[in-house]
Design brief:
The chain is α/β, with parallel strands linked by helices and 316 residues long. The protein folds into two domains: 9-137, Nucleoside Triphosphate Pyrophosphohydrolase (Alpha-Beta Complex), CATH 3.90.79; 144-313, Rossmann fold, CATH 3.40.50. It has helices at residues 50-62, 113-119, 126-137, 171-188, 199-212, 224-229, 232-244, 257-266, 274-283; strands spanning 9-20, 23-31, 36-38, 41-43, 65-78, 84-96, 107-111, 144-150, 192-195, 216-218, 248-252, 293-299, 306-313. Strands 1, 2, 3, 4, 5, 6 and 7 form a seven-stranded mixed β-sheet that branches. Helix 5 links the parallel strand 9 (192-195) and strand 10 (216-218). GO terms for molecular function: bis(5'-nucleosyl)-tetraphosphatase (asymmetrical) activity. It is an enzyme of class 3 (hydrolase). Its EC number is 3.-.-.-. Keywords: Hydrolase.
């Protein structure tokens, strides 16, 4: 809220993309109520994050499941009802779905970028399309996500008398894990889930892994005890993730996170926004919040893997 005015309406949207006979296509939706063509998008539910809303709304409107890729320019505009609307957009790789339409949408059209530009009803929607085309022209549209997760709120050490690795999440911590953490990970669709073997870490990412049927792999080098005994193990795990170059969620502890942020900063692409670079520098000096998800958009694999975008999703 600004200056006592009406609150900003927050929404998330996606530009679904696919290759058809080697040619790039994007999906637009037609809303009969407004007789307009635009990108799939919708308002955030209470307690929801922008990426989760973007994927949920795309599914509800188009019946397509998407995996978020590069963030695109946001849009902010005044609604006829008075308040401003702020929409955060991403590219979205279609990963499934039968394409069943929502009652608010009566048609989904897969079009070339030129066709889409002509059909879009609102000039502001071309900002996202232009950015997507620029990414494709630069061969920077095919990305993968590295999702760094700090475990959610755990039982305090002072209240726990068994070995520390067995210390579990509190009830609010479990709610965070089953709610916003799970939804955020689902939005980016990682194929690999790595975790410290400590209970507070596995409990944070297990709801997502179980729901998606992905094995949860634990690594001692991601634990506080393993890091203290063998600090170099963290770098080895990160290098393996980079070598694979596939979407990965990695859950660990506060003491490891500054080193991990430093490793990501060392892989910052020349194109990385200065604000994103400053974010990584800050995180290299202090750990993330408990229950936070740091979404790093990655380009390439192995030694060529580079961070091209960074988004912080912090607990409310």
């Amino acid at each position: 809220m600004s200056g006592g005015g009406p609150p900003v309406v927050r929404a998330g949207g996606v530009l679904p993309v696919r290759r058809r006979h080697g040619k790039l296509e994007v999906a637009l939706v037609h809303r009969p109520k407004y007789d307009d063509w635009s990108w799939p998008k919708g308002k955030l539910d209470r307690g929801e994050d922008f990426p989760s809303a973007a994927v949920r709304e795309t599914w509800e409107e188009t019946g397509l499941r998407v995996r978020l890729g590069m963030p695109l320019p946001p849009a902010r505009y005044r609604l006829t009802s008075g308040p401003d609307k702020l929409v955060h957009y991403w590219t979205g790789e279609v990963s499934g779905g039968a394409g069943a339409l929502d009652h608010e949408v009566d048609e989904v059209a897969w079009l070339s970028p030129k066709q889409a530009s002509r059909r879009l009803s609102y000039p502001r929607d071309r900002d996202q399309l232009d950015a997507l085309v620029a990414l494709d022209d630069a061969d920077r549209l095919a990305t993968w996500s590295l999702l760094v997760v700090r475990h959610a709120l755990a039982v305090p050490r002072s209240e726990w008398h068994d070995p520390d690795p067995r210390r579990p999440l509190t009830r609010p911590g479990r709610q965070r894990a089953r709610g916003r953490v799970q939804a955020l990970l689902s939005a980016y669709g990682p194929e690999v889930v790595l975790s410290s073997p400590s209970v507070r870490c596995t409990e944070t990412v297990e709801p997502f892994a179980a729901a998606e049927g992905i094995p949860l792999t634990t690594k001692k080098g991601l634990s506080e005890e393993g890091f203290e005994a063998h600090p170099g193990a963290l770098a080895k795990h990160v290098e393996r993730v980079m070598a694979q170059g596939v979407g990965t969620a990695l859950c660990t502890h506060g003491p490891l996170l500054p080193d991990l942020a430093g490793m990501l900063l060392a892989r910052a692409d020349a194109s990385l926004e200065s604000s994103d670079r400053r974010m990584l520098k800050r995180l290299a000096g202090r750990p993330m919040d408990k229950g936070e998800v740091l979404a790093c958009t990655m380009l390439g694999a192995g030694r060529k893997a580079r961070v091209v975008a960074v988004e912080r999703h912090r607990p409310a």
